[in-house]
Here is the input.
Amino acid sequence: MDAQELPPVENYAPEIYGAENQNWAISQAADNYIYIANNSGLLEFNGAKWKLFPSPNKSSLRSVNVIGDRIYTGCYMEFGYWEKNDFGNLIYFSLSKKLKEPLLEEIFWNILKLDNWVLFQSLHRIYIYNTDDESFNSINSETNLPKVFKVNESIYFQKMNDGLYKIENGKPVLISDHPILQNNILVNIFSVNEKMLLQTQEKGFYFFEDKKFSKWDFPSNDEISSMSVYSSLQLADGSFILGTISNGIYHLDSNGNLLNKINQKNGLNNNTVLSLFEDRDHNVWLGLDNGISLINFNSPFSIYNDIYGKLGTVYASVIYNNNLYLGTNQGLFYKNSNSNEDFKFVPGTNGQVWCLKVIDGTLFCGHNIGTFIVNDNVVELIADYMGTWDIKHFNNNKNLLLQGNYDGLFVLEKINNSWKIRNKIEGFDISSRHFELIDNNQLFVSHEFKGVYKLKINNDFTKVLEYSTEKSVQKGLKSSLIKYNNDIIYTLKEGIFKYNKKNEKFIKDSLMSANFLANDTYFSGNLVVDPKTNTLWGFTNKNIVYFTPGKLNNIPKSVKIYLPASLRRGIAGFESMTNLTGRQYLFGTSRGYIILDLDKSNNERPFKIGINSIDKSILNAQSTPVSLEDNNAFKFRNNNLVFNFSVPEYDKYAEVNYQYQLKGIYNKWSSWSTNSEVFFKNLPAGNYTFHVRAKIGNVLSTNVASYSFRINRPWMLSTPMLLIYFILFSALLFLIHNLYKNYYAKQKQKLMERKQRDFALSQLENEKVIMQLKNEKLQGEIFSKTRELSASTMNIINKNELLRTIKEELTLVKDETNIKPVIKIINKNIANTSDWELFQEAFNNADSDFLKKVKLLHPALSPNDLRLCAYLRLNLSSKEIAPLLNISVRSVEIKRYRLRKKMDLPHEDSLVAYILNI
Here is the structure.
């Protein structure tokens, strides 16, 4: 019985749960968390993560029992209880330290509850703790006390070499001192049909009734009696689990029939079972000498593991004549479908089996070497053409079968109630693994690498008249071609396509495609039809999907069952499925097969999600736990939060997915994920509410776990600081206001001053303009007077020239008597001082104070010198000056020379230029 159809087993090695090897006791809390007494301390498992709480005195924990909100534990020289604090962590409280009597050298192996009492059992004493008044009572024994038992709300215990006792009114009462009880260790006591069933460690079971013992003679008694049983458990369904030393567990029904034998060879971590526990979902936990194992007895799945590799990979299966046949890569095997016997090999079938088909009461086996008929577990080769992929009926002819082979299509014919190969359909030599008839003369053949072919054959099925590649669909790896509800369906990565006869093309069925791959990824397009239930089965990366016809319409209904490809261990594209009976289905794997019982598939079982812990931290620093109570406020620097959450779900084939949102910043729900932890970094200040929910299969958790909190503003933005900022800001505004006020007052003053200055400048400018105008007027007057002076001067010069000319002419006249008076008058006019006075007055009017300036600069100048300066000021030449002075030009030059001397002018300086610059 090493290879059996067993329930799923999940193993947890010490490396996984993070503690030592041995696990002595197991219990479960109201929130479905599992607690295990381990050599390192108390283990907590919430379905997602393990957590270890070291024992109070660093010794090995030997017992655990969850009672209400307390987790009672016992170890060497210590017992007490644990309670969760606001942070979700367990805190230990010692009870043994409250004892008035000293402890013996003892270890506490068992903890039981009865009413308001909790019993702690060591090998020498039983301490009875009253949870109401916290008082203690104790029962001593001179011999060992192997174990204490609770049966029908009564407490029993065994004293070695003495007998079986019952506690009544707080005192031990001897029930029986039968030799069996004196000499054999009792492992457990059960209540069966109102009788006590006592299980010994090495002598099997005994019924105890009316103080009499009788051996329970059950079918597997001999085998069980040869084992050393260390732990045992009666399940809720009345069956028994026996944990042995070195032989794993034995599962017996209520009548003692052996149901399963599970050990290290076929599933367990270790063969020595130290403790057993059935949880609320009827999973059985095994505390082993090395690790922990979990058995899902209530799972819809049972697994057959070919642990010795006898079978190989299962490619096909079928029930025929009460036998289960498996077609594998190593041949054809069978066994009685209702027994746990080993599979037997069918001789002559060595090699790859591709298909098993029951057609009209005949079992056909498609094999690598051809086609076999199986009868009474003996095979007959009826077609020796290599590689029979599949065999199917022709539409309207029950005496003909169509089979696809490595090199095309063949026809089988039934003659005289015997099937023989009739002919190959010529004209098509492509491998024909998937094929379906459209009508009697047309069919499709699918090839993974070449696509879908449409063939037309003649009426006697001997020749392919024509064939072409179907253009409406692509070729695809791991694709399939089947007929379901009279529809030809082609499946590949792009979706599920149905053939439309009217349009003569494949059209994608969007609804089936969406349901097939919803929240999943493509793994295989291989679809399998179950004609018994008219269901269509498919295989994705995470699930098995089956479609059933719609009851009120033609829309098929889809159901997903979580069974990932990693657990199925099948060959993608070669998945096989067989309806065993009713709603039981067999799926081939690379190591045997998996059986699914849909009647046990309880996808609607309610479950809850909980937040286990919350940690806060400064970014990249060590985190610290925070209280799980709502409305916590965190400092801004602790704005990095880690949330841990879980669903205490222990089904190996149930995948839990989580979805969360953080209202206040991420208001949309996240994508579904199997990660049970989320980390929020650098949250801004504000109010938040964290929500998380879970999904198993298509079922949502009945609750949404939530946690509200607040991230305070940084200290520089706190209310007191904001008030200070407000005061400072107001003061700053006031200061700025005053500064601006003073500034603008100064600017106004400056502006006024500038305006006044500009006005003054404007006035000065106007006065300057007026002055300029006056100067221009004066200049004009001066210019006019200068012209007048020049004209007057020129007139004098001309007059004197004229008089001199006349005088010269008169001197030529010999009549001096008459001429002299005239010459005298002329000389008088030439030397007339009135002309100089008139000139001087006009000159002073034209060039004010020039003569005074010259006199001031050169006091030694004579009037004649000043007169010469005036003429030079008018820029007159020596020739023009001579008549005015009534001297010769030579004399003028001499005067000029003398004037230079008097003025002390250097030789190189111009006299006229000097005078003009004065």
In short: The two ends are 147 Å apart (CA to CA). Residues 364 and 373 are 5 Å apart (CA to CA).
